[in-house]
Amino acid sequence: MVALPSEETLTDFYQIVYTHNNESKSKYEFNIAIVDCEPSFLHSIQTIYEVNVRSQALILNKKDEDIIFGNESNEIEEIMRVD
């Protein structure tokens, strides 16, 4: 078991490397982001993001489509398009 320290209001990034039975061919890398927010806030991106530990970022893999964070029933306050 692994315990990852996390601070409230921050997003923490970790990379864990697991080698099964110390065999180099059975090496697995897990990139983990601990995000301090309600789970529903990230619901719409749960299958389209990548955790980049080096740049400490969540990379969204959704080109030419809108991304909505949070509750869709609330009025949209700001739209930002990144190309």
Task: Give an overview in words.
The chain is mainly β and 83 residues long. The chain has a domain at 12-60. Helix content is 0%, strand content 29%. It is built from no helices and 4 strands. The strands form 2 sheets. It has a two-stranded antiparallel ribbon with strand order 1-2. Strands 3-4 form a two-stranded antiparallel sheet. A hairpin with a 4-residue loop joins strand 3 and strand 4. The mean pLDDT is 80.
Notable traits:
two-stranded antiparallel ribbon, single chain, extended, mainly beta, 29% strand, 83 residues
What does the secondary structure layout of this molecule look like, with pairings?
Elements: E1 12-19, E2 27-34, E3 49-52, E4 57-60
Antiparallel strand pairs: 1-2, 3-4
Quick structural gist:
With 83 residues, this protein is mainly β. The chain has no helices and 4 strands.
Shape verdict = extended
Figure out the total of helices.
Answer: 0
Oligomeric composition of the shown chains: single chain
Order of helices and strands: EEEE
The computed structural class is mainly beta
